[in-house]
Amino acid sequence: MKPVAAISVLLVAVALAALPATRATAGPVSPALARANPELAPQGEYASSLAFTVDTISPTVVTAGGPSVLMIRGSMKNVSRFDIRGLQYVFQRGGPLPGMADLKRTLTETDFSAVIDQNWTDLLPTLAAGGTSKFSFSVPMAGSSDLTLALDARGVYPTMVKVLGDIGEIGFSQLARIGELQLLTTVLSAPPAPVKVAAAAAPADPATPAEPAARPIPVSALWPLVDVPHTGVDGVFLNDDLARSISPGGRLATILDTLPEVDPKAAGVTLVVDPMLLDELARMANGYRLTTTPGRPRPPLVPAPNTTANTTANTTGTLSSATTPTSSGPTNPGDPSAAGDGAGSPPTPSAASTLQAGGGGAPPALFPPGTVAGAGRQLAIEFLTRLRTAVAGNTVLVLPYSDPDTVALVRAGMSDNLAGLIAGGRDVAARVLQPVGTGQPGPAALLTTMALPENGLIDASTLATLSADGMTTAVLAAGSVQHAGGPVGAVTVNSTGALTLDSGAAAGEVNAAVTDSPVLPSMDALIASAGRPGGAVRLSVLTATLAEQGFTATGTPVVLMPDHRWTPKRGTHAELFATLGIFAGERVTAPLPVTEIAAGAVQPAQLLYGPRSVAAELAPGYVSRVRADNAGIGQLRDALQRAADPTATSLVPPDPAAILDPLQAALRTAGSAALRPDGLPADNMLTTIEDSLSGLRSGVQITPVSSYTLASSSSPLLISVRNNLPYAVRVRLAIGGDQVRLRWTDPGVQTILPGRSAQVRVETRVTRAGRFQIPVRLLAGDGSDWGEPALLTVNSSAYGTLTVVLIAGAGGLLLVLVAFRIIGRWRAGQARRGIASGGGPGAAAGPPDPDSILGAANELVSFAGVPLPTATRRAYP
Questions:
Q1: Which residues of 699-716 are buried (b: 16+ CB within 10 A; e: fewer)?
Q2: Gyration radius of the chain's alpha carbons
Q3: Around Cβ 521, how many Cβ atoms within 10 Å?
Q4: Pairing relation of β-strands 510-515 and 490-493?
Q5: Concatenated DSSP letters for 743-788?
Q6: What is the pLDDT of residues 497-548, one digit of tens each?
Q7: Which of 407, 448, 545, 709 has the least CB density, counted as fewest CB within 10 Å?
Q8: pTM for the full predicted model
Q9: First vs last Cα of the chain: how many Å apart?
């Protein structure tokens, strides 16, 4: 052998020895052998050498009126460390899956028994290690089984694309299975045969069942048009985010633009709106103001001085140092139904023509300080016009105003506030979406009796409260109910167990549509992953799951409920609802309003609301703050009154509603479930509300006095209260004197005129003398605390009962002691006189001893007006 030839043989032998055992022993395999053995190297060492990204699968659902060729397009990457040559692919499919269990098993298995095995087709000459290439796999779906997949009957078929390649080295050919793509092909009706392929009867699949009778699966979808709160105190917008959201390409604009593409009636779609958003759009359409410093609290609202009767300013009072136009809202400005809240908000527009004309209201001459004009007025006009057109003749589910965290509000004892938000939301939606006499398309049908809690979770007491407020149906998440049996589309929550009204009466029965369909995980995954690779595969899994339930007549109604503040994916949702339209045409599904799904409830259930749901609510500390602010507004509304005009001709006293109404209106949005993550948008607003309330309370105070003196045990206290507000105020006093034994009589509610001081006489009774301090609190007319107590110094000279008893006792004892002393001295004197006269006990009585009291009393001092000499005095008998 020549040296060169010997060296070549040696190098080949060394190379073969260095190859992995599987490569060395595999040997060359021809495409013909691979064709004869479809299970070639299943899941072998090289089966994952290719990574596929599927862009499109056409058709998504196979029908008689659709394409005749199955086409899969995308890209693939050689993730191995070696080059691959001579790439080929082949389609395989199995028999129709008989049920959901088989479908789920197919999704996790990597191989199946092939019934139809199509010929190998060349794909690519070479794909270098790490290289990427586009691919296009195609196969006819009808006709001869040697050339097509022979999909001639309804069903869901497991389908696989296997890719073969030459991975041999140093001149050796080694064919191996280098990649696979597993799919589910959904056939609703036999596809047409390709033009160039003669249709031929395909061999019958041994497991092919008879086509089941059609039993359409009810399908309904909710389409939320909900956003976060944008307005704060006095109707001033916190930022201009809403204008950006309704601009072309914005989140809300996308929701509205996508709605017509899904054909609400054909797809069972119900639009969901938050009346707060409608209210804000109406404000924008009439001109609006923005805070100049987003993220910072606005200054508190303060009373304005009296205005003259003939002024053009708002005669109901003014805010801060600015005037705003009078609202055309309802007579109760605190009612959350008001599009204008009595705080200068523009009236809600009723038609596009009205919007274009600015609602007929004159622009304000003065504006709240620290604000600038917003630039989204025209955007709001156009958005509202398009919204009315989109919902015309369709059903619109109306949420409570601001889409509140209902469970958190009820738990905090704010059920009355929730009732106001429900009623107010209905009024706003009717005013904005059902304009009268505007030439607009037919108004929307408002659905105001269906509850849609955040994330579909609710507890029993909250559902009972909503039921009492007219919510007779609901849409709930599958995890919020417990019932017997498998998945259901609707349940009945009755008045048994914990579901009772606060009064103890049985709550009305609530039928709830439930997101309990096995299809929903696939549908949610498709929507959530929109825009990411793999969407076409996820759509094929979804359609297969939905079809399998329809074929086996075990389908659960499908209720698609996105997050309230979702962002739709235009391409994904359009394709999804187009697919649902195809299913509806083939009687696999049937669009049905969510109300009808709920109405069919027969399965009783209990509500589940666990610790994780509680933890997701608005923070308890934040809700307590909202509740305290709400109570503070109510306190001042009761305490402050518009004073009578003293001249009855020239001055118009300000109305406290000019401040309290905008504060109450701003508080309507503080319970929104959109604030669950951090509550920051409302924190600044609450600060402004609290500063405004504190400023009003500080205008009425107890006038400090150095000290009070109580001259007797029943002396009254005269306490001076100063009212610096321009309103009359109703207040009361409370004295805390228990520690010094001071008793007092409530003088009752006192009305103090604006700018005046008043002395309040408080009858007291004190049983302690001395100097001490007592706290005196100012209360509102309803008895709630007005502010911090004032400490008054009291000097008391009153003697208590014990002191009087002690003094009387001491005086009596002193008199007794004096009497004893007198008697004692008298007896002593008598004894000395008896001894001096020598008499004993029976001796005659003589003159008293001069040193005794009796002797001193009988001493002769003068005679006939002439003083006697001292020496003669004692001698006088």
A1: bbbbeeeeebebeebebb
A2: 48
A3: 12
A4: antiparallel
A5: EE-----EEE-TT-EEEEEE-EEE---EEEEEEEEEEETTS-B-SS
A6: 343 333 333 446 899 999 988 888 877 777 766 667 777 888 888 888 888 8
A7: 709
A8: 0.74
A9: 190
